[in-house]
Amino acid sequence: MKIGILTSGGDCPGLNAVIRGVVIKGNTMFEDEFIGFKDGWRGVIEKDYMTLPRRRVRGIGRIGGTILGTSRSNPFADGEDGAEIVRQNMDDMDMDALIAIGGDGTLFTANRLFEAGIPIVGVPKTVDNDLDATDYTFGFNTAVEIATESLDRLRMTGDSHHRCMVGEVMGRSVGWIALHSGMAAGAHVICLPEFPLSLDDICHYVQAAFNRGRAPLVVVAEGFVPKDAPEGFMDYELDEFGRPRFGGIAEALAPLIEERLGIETRATVLGHIQRGGEPTAYDRVLATRLGTTALDLVHKGGFGRMVALRGTEIVDVPLSEAIDSLKKVPESRWREAEVLFG
Ligand code: F6P
Predict the structure, then answer these.
(1) 132 φ, ψ to 5°?
(2) What tens digit of pLDDT does each residue of 99-127 get?
(3) Residue 233's domain spans which residues?
(4) Pocket around ligand 1: residues whose beta carbon is below 6 Å from it?
């Protein structure tokens, strides 16, 4: 078969491991030929691609980022008939199928293309871990490791100065990175978008930790807003898709904590540091398994479906299920964490 691969949306450690898994299996088990489209849907629309012989994927499984490049471009933007262009380009290039590796936006587009008759299979990715149809997405484990290491460092300097440290991690609508890295680093309070605390709640936990002689550590997900915040508390710019460009909630909270409690407080925004660098062993293995299973799905004709992790097994589910709902932190996980605050 002749198969196109693309990576789309925000990058994520493990993308290269998926590409490598697909290409190696296609070479050893089938006689597949692979095309790598550059910068997500842009490459598909503009027929900008590279060939992917086996030698091109040599050693890439342990490297972060994506050798194909990525973008947040959308084939249906500006009223374009994306499906028609994709179909035409695939015909011109004699292609049999597409494998789209991406988050909710990419999988939504993939489903739309499938509904218009394009043979396409999805592979989920996102550091935020917010896709409901899979237990974990690759990239999440790496982001949590990086965040935890950074929070450990913040605790160390905070201890020396008897300061409160506020660390901001990624997580637009869900607080998985904050929950896991915050628990691992022993945070004194974790602020998630799903369970908004008030400024009073946060200060209560900070003061309690300080009173016990600890340098309080506050971990906050970028999408968090205090429940008592006034309208327009965080005035984010919008990106080209009209989504808020997060970043800065830690810097907004730190002076408020300092003002209320008189405890010297500093803020650190980890930002894209969490998305760069090498994937952890866990993410390399998960990404490789998703890649090889996605290729099987293509050969079985399982179009309109996406590979997913359920327990320890890789399964496949309809793309429509993948875009149905966000995987939020459930109340049970919040309660587990909450008892450790203060
Ligand atoms: O969706 C993943 C994510 O990393 C979010 O956590 C973050 O808000 C966003 O992407 C950042 O996007 P960009 O790289 O386009 O600034």
Answers:
(1) -70, -25
(2) 999 999 999 999 999 999 999 999 999 99
(3) 140-275
(4) 10, 103, 126-128, 170-172, 222, 246, 275
